[in-house]
Design brief:
It is built from no helices and eleven strands.
């Protein structure tokens, strides 16, 4: 059993900043990839950013230069620093991990989502 607890969402004006956090716990041996996805109403879920255990990062074109993903491997936690927020960033943001469970299998798990709303 794995739990992902997200925090940091909320309402912010355009141009503002928010920092999302996601802490993973449970039957985890190691985490390969940690990432953030988002889903706006009526749209498909899309990748925002992800980071490997070695620190290699990938960003969606729409957030490059504004968002920064980082992780604390000792605490199994991933962060998303979001600056210069725009109304089009409004969505539910989901944490995702690709990990090796304590029992051996490689698995994938999602958080419950946190709402980010950017007002114009």
């Amino acid at each position: 059993q794995v739990q992902l607890v997200e925090s940091g969402g909320g309402l912010v004006q355009a141009g503002g900043s928010l920092r999302l956090s996601c802490a993973a716990s449970g039957s985890i041996s190691s985490i390969n990839i940690m990432g953030w996805y988002r889903q706006a109403p009526g749209s498909a879920r899309e990748l925002v950013a992800r980071i490997t255990s070695a620190g290699r990062t990938t960003y969606a074109d729409s957030v490059t230069g504004r968002f920064t993903i980082s992780r604390d491997n000792a605490k199994n936690t991933v962060f998303l620093q979001m600056n210069s927020l725009r109304p089009e960033d409004t969505a539910v943001y989901y944490c995702n991990i690709d990990f090796l469970s304590s029992l051996g299998p490689r698995l994938n798990s999602w958080g419950q989502g946190t709402q980010v709303t950017v007002s114009s």
